[in-house]
Amino acid sequence: MKRNKVLHIVGGMDVGGTETMLMNLYRKVYKEIQFDFVSYYHKEGYYDEEIRKLGGRIIKLDPPSEVGVIKSVINLMKIIKNDDEYSAVHAHTLFNCGVGVLAAKLVGVKVRISHAHTTKDCSKSLIKRLYISIMKGLIKGFSTNFLSCSDAAGKYLFGYSTLKDDRYCKLPNYIDYERFINNEGSSYIRKKLGINNDDILIGNVGRFIHAKNHNFLINLMSNLVRINPKFKCILIGDGDLYRDIEEKIKKLNLENNIHLLGIRDDVNNILKEIDLFILPSTYEGLGLVLLEAQASGVPCLTSTAIQPEADLHLDLLKRLNLEAGIEIWSNTVMKMLEQSKVDKMLIKRTFEFQGYRIEDVKGKLYKLYGIELEGNKYEKCANSIL
Questions:
Q1: 168 contacts: CB under 8 Å, gap ≥ 6
Q2: pTM recorded for the entire structure
C-alpha cells in the first residue's frame, strides 16, 4: 500500500515556533502520514533525530542564498522526483517558498502550499527587494494553497488580495493544549534556581534574536527589581544574541534576578511555575508560546506586534505598545499580577471552540493535502472549519 507522504521545506528544525508547531502535528499524524523535511540548515537540528524516529527523513540542501534560485529549484526537483510519492509539498521558508512551489510544479506535484509564519523581514537592500518581488510572483503563480498563522502574516507574504482568495486559509498553530492545561506543575525549577515561592517569577521563551526584543525585557526587569527585589525572571531559548544578553544582565547586576535556561523540552512544566509571561517582540507571526502560556492559565503581557489571533479571549492576554515606556509597562505588570485564576474547563472549551482540537486540525490538513483515509473520518470536521 502506498504511504501518504508530504514534503516540508524549512530553514531548519531547531526549536522555534514554526518548527515546534510542525513537530506537534507530526507526533499526532506520523502513523497516517510520513513527513519528510528539506532543511537548509547543515548542522544537526534539535528535532532531526526525533523526526527520524517517527519515520520521516531529513534532507540537507544548500539554501538559495548560497547556490542561487536555479540550482535550488533543480536540487528540489531531483529530491521530489526521486521519491515520486509526495501528495503535497508544503513550504515554510518565507519568500523562498517560491523556489519550493516552482520545483514542485515542474515535477507535477498537485498540491503546492506556501505557508506564512511571520510579519516582517529584516533585509531592506534594493537587490533583496527585487528578489522578494520575484519570489512573490512565483508564490502567487505556482502555489495551489496559501496558509498563514495570522491574517497579518498572510498579508505580508501573499498580499491583501490573497486574503480574499478561496485558496487562502488560516491554520491554527497547533499545540497539544491538554499537556499544558492538565499539568499540575511543581516547584522544581524554583528550587533548582533558589527562587522562593513568594518571589514573583516572570517568564519568556524565544530565540535570542533582535525580533524577540530581550533588551527591552531586561530593562523592564531592572526597573521591576528596583520596585521589588523579589522579581525574578527566566529566559528560555538560545540564539545569536545569547552572549550579548548575558553581558547586559551582568552589566545591570541582575545575575541573581534573571536566569538563562537555554533550550528546554519541559516548557509545559516550567510555565506552571511562573506568575506572568512577557513577550515584547518587535514583530511576530503569531507567537505559539502565548498559546502554551494561556493553556497553562498564565497571564501574558505582550507588545502590540503580537497578532490578535494569539488572544484566546480568556482575559489572560494584554497587548501594550512598546513606546508606552518602561514605567507604564511596570505599572501594567503590577496590575496583571492581581488577576484571578481562570478555570481549567473554560480554557479547554475555548481551545476546542477555536478549532485547536487535533481532529479539527487533521481534518483541515488532510483535506488540503488531498489525502483520504479509510472511512474519511476527518472529512466532516474539515468541511466545518475550512
A1: 145, 146, 147, 148, 154, 158, 162
A2: 0.88
